[in-house]
Amino acid sequence: MKVEMTRFMMAYKFAIDEVNTKINILKDEFTYIHDYNPIEHVKSRLKSPESLMKKVAKKGIPYSLQSIKDQVRDIAGIRITVSFISDIYEIRNMLANQKDITIVESKDYIQTPKPNGYQSLHLILQIPIFMSDREENVYVEIQIRTIAMDFWASLEHKIYYKYNKDIPEHLLTELKDAATKAMMLDKKMEQLNKEVNVLKHLDKETNSDEMIVKIDQDQFPIPMQLLEALMKN
Ligand code: 0O2
Description:
Layout: H1 2-34, E1 39-46, H2 49-59, H3 65-71, E2 76-82, H4 85-96, E3 102-108, E4 121-130, E5 135-146, H5 147-162, H6 169-219, H7 224-232
Parallel strand pairs: 2-5
Antiparallel strand pairs: 1-2, 3-4, 4-5
Helix pairs in contact: 5-6
Bound molecules: ligand 0O2.
The site of ligand 0O2 has 10 residues, from helix 5.
């Protein structure tokens, strides 16, 4: 049983390794194409056996590895924290475009935040893992969120457990308010970033205008008299 369980969990560890490699490649490619790195940090975790058993009991899942494999989709979890809201969807699209990844479920808590204010994009992926004697399709849960969303979620998580899942009403209200402010900050930062990008784009265009002027001057040479006068000075 122990050997079976270890092999079972190993598949999820390999799935995390596979997806992490993909994320690193996307990160480098994104940096190369867009000249900036949208990924602030990536954290991965394997659900502990205790937490897995709690979930199995809570959901009434039969105690067989096959049922657990089919019904618990967050044994392997990866959280990606990015700079801007638009990066979240860019990363989602990049993952969706990978041939061996299938997105089997998507929960957009950014379009529709949870009643407590929680925001994040949750994806359940399926990825094939090749082992010495078999190939397995493994589920991986991906949470993609901004720094502000992550900041909020980690504090809310601490408060949730500090109060044993029964957060006092006034803290719930304050948390909701903080979530709204985090959302406003994200929108503001996105808008500022867009403005800066427009300026960058204009800068590039101005430079390319200079190029065109130079080319034009080559095509229509400056009169000799003017050139001589310029050379003298
Ligand atoms: P852990 O230890 O973080 O993994 P399901 O997983 O489908 O049975 P649910 O609630 O439908 O349960 O899944 P959902 O909505 O996709 O959320 C799963 C995970 O998102 C949670 O995992 C949290 O990590 C995170 N999450 C969801 N809601 C909240 C929230 O209100 N606050 C915070 N801080 N995190 C949230 P686990 O299994 O709860 O724990």
